[in-house]
Amino acid sequence: MQAFTRLDGRAVPLSLANIDTDQIIPKQFLKTVEREGLAKGLFYDFRFDGEGNPISDFVLNRPEYKGASVMIAGDNFGCGSSREHAPWALMDFGIMCVISTSFADIFNNNCFNNGLLPVVLAPDEIAVLMDEALGGNHMVSIDLEAQTVISPSGQTFHFDIDPIRKDKMLRGLDFIGETLMHGGDIDLFESKRAIGQPWLEL
């Protein structure tokens, strides 16, 4: 997992509340366990019409938000089913941080487990970021170490985060990475078991 320390990027506003995981990545794109290639299905029903043509006024199709890496979202983002493809699709599209007033628990956990940073701010702070992202300057900064979001106009907002999750994000540690940190202990255990219980090696 890639470490997350600081992100300076373009913010795209998605003011809709209760966006569920089927809207983030519709079910027809769940036929793979690969994390790459899912960007094409991200918000598919919002981005494309019935013939597969881009809907020009949807924010992710507008040229001023091309290359956005931060999403300013409405309340209760990521509700619905527990599909891990949702954060995968966002990250494959280039979104590395989603800022909202609240996230569904399973989606929130999936984000942390895959290196996408979910940031919770107060409604009035989200409103500022949403308004500024709709304006001419879309650049925001997220500093995980300082736990701050800096708006395009320079306003600074502080966010809370579980210290264990923060440390794992800063070091780029997922569950596999955490396990590999104990590689020496695992090797020692297996060596002792091979000597003491050799029939298990057959």
Structure description:
- The chain is α/β, with parallel strands linked by helices and 202 residues long.
- It has one domain (6-171): Aconitase, domain 4 (Alpha-Beta Barrel), CATH 3.20.19.
- It is built from eight helices and seven strands.
- The chain has a seven-stranded mixed beta sheet.
- Strand 3, helix 4 and strand 4 form a beta-alpha-beta unit.
- It is globular.
Describe this structure in a few short sentences:
The protein has 202 residues and is an alpha/beta fold. The protein is 34% helix and 16% strand. The protein has a single domain, classed as Alpha-Beta Barrel (Aconitase, domain 4), CATH 3.20.19.
Class per helix and strand makeup: alpha/beta
Percent of sequence in beta strands: 15-25%
N to C succession of SSEs: EHHEHEHEHEEEHHH
CATH architecture: Alpha-Beta Barrel
Percent of residues in helical segments?
25-40%
Please report the number of helical segments: 8
Morphology: globular
CATH superfamily: Aconitase, domain 4
Tell me the strand order in the biggest sheet.
4-3-2-1-5-6-7
Uncertain runs are none
- The CATH topology assignment is Aconitase, domain 4
Please give the CATH class: Alpha Beta
How many independent structural domains? 1
How would you characterize the largest beta sheet?
7 strands, mixed
Instruction: Report the C-alpha radius of gyration, rounded.
Output: 20 Å
- Distance separating the two termini: 35 Å
Average pLDDT confidence is: 89
Counting DSSP E segments of at least 2 residues, the number of strands comes to 7
